């Protein structure tokens, strides 16, 4: 992840919430994937992004995702799931699980989605403590710590920029100012922050959704698309279910589905069968 951030061009990291969506991201050729806390909460618990999901549930899903793809994976770890000791544990366990980066935010607990009203932020000292604990807790110096501030909506852009500077000083590798409300604000963020920055592209959210080339021109180094796949899966899945209920068949959307071979191929089925054949007895006598 650190090498990607140091290289040319903006790094695009679409969101995923399970191994299927992670494979779609990786096989499309993206350089990194983002484990969306909102998507995991919805898919694992049937609950919105309101701080309901636990550390154990997130790391279990993140571990499986990281094991299923071979590109760097960033994980949304909300506020770190407690005090500084909890943050250290979170970072160490995420690193051991195969993740390449974590994103920690300055909201109070329980947190809210970054594009919903009513978010509250902790004081600067508490958040800088989280960042320092995360940086100190990692074993691999290349493990990336992303610091997010939600102060723009609660306290205004200037307060968010002041926090961003302090978070970078505390050791964050990437700064994420959540929910700027115009292209001009996005430009101001990049003009004022002397660190790599992250853009959060949320369809229907508070921030303009811009092409990656425009984000790069503004100065962003990393762009995440947390729930683009979640939204599309929800939309298409609902359309399929409505059609099946009304017509009694799925044929009307068959051309929009992966066929059997393509779906299994998404998960390396030929490699699995070759591995099975390598070790399986074929005549019942142990001969192969």
Automatic annotation (TrEMBL):
<dbReference type="InterPro" id="IPR039556">
    <property type="entry name" value="ICL/PEPM"/>
</dbReference>
<protein>
    <submittedName>
        <fullName>Carboxyvinyl-carboxyphosphonate phosphorylmutase</fullName>
    </submittedName>
</protein>
<dbReference type="InterPro" id="IPR040442">
    <property type="entry name" value="Pyrv_kinase-like_dom_sf"/>
</dbReference>
<dbReference type="InterPro" id="IPR015813">
    <property type="entry name" value="Pyrv/PenolPyrv_kinase-like_dom"/>
</dbReference>
<dbReference type="Pfam" id="PF13714">
    <property type="entry name" value="PEP_mutase"/>
</dbReference>
<dbReference type="GO" id="GO:0016833">
    <property type="term" value="F:oxo-acid-lyase activity"/>
</dbReference>
């Amino acid at each position: 992840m650190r090498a990607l951030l140091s290289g040319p061009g903006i790094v695009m990291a679409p969101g995923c919430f399970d191994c299927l969506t992670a494979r779609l991201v990786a096989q499309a050729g993206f350089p990194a994937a983002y484990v969306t806390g909102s998507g995991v909460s919805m898919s694992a618990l049937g609950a919105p992004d309101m701080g309901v999901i636990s550390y154990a549930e997130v790391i279990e899903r993140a571990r499986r995702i990281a094991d299923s793809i071979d590109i760097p994976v960033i994980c949304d770890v909300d506020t770190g799931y407690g005090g500084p000791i909890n943050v250290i544990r979170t970072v160490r366990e995420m690193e051991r699980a195969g993740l390449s980066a974590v994103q920690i935010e300055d909201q109070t607990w329980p947190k809210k989605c970054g594009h919903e009203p009513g978010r509250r932020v902790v004081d600067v000292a508490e958040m800088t403590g989280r960042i320092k604990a995360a940086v100190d807790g990692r074993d691999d110096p290349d493990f990336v710590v992303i610091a997010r501030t939600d102060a723009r909506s609660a306290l205004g852009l200037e307060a968010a920029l002041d926090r961003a500077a302090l978070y970078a000083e505390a050791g964050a590798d990437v700064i994420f100012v959540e929910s700027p409300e115009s292209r001009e604000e996005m430009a101001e963020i990049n003009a004022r922050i002397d660190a790599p920055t992250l853009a959060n592209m949320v369809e229907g959210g508070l921030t303009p959704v811009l092409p990656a080339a425009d984000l790069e021109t503004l100065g962003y180094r990393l762009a995440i698309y947390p729930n683009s796949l979640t939204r599309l899966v929800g939309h298409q899945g609902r359309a399929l279910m409505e059609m099946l209920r009304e017509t009694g068949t799925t044929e009307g959307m068959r051309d929009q589905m992966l066929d059997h071979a393509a779906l299994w191929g998404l998960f390396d089925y030929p490699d699995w069968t070759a591995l099975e054949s390598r070790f399986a007895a074929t005549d019942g006598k142990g001969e192969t």
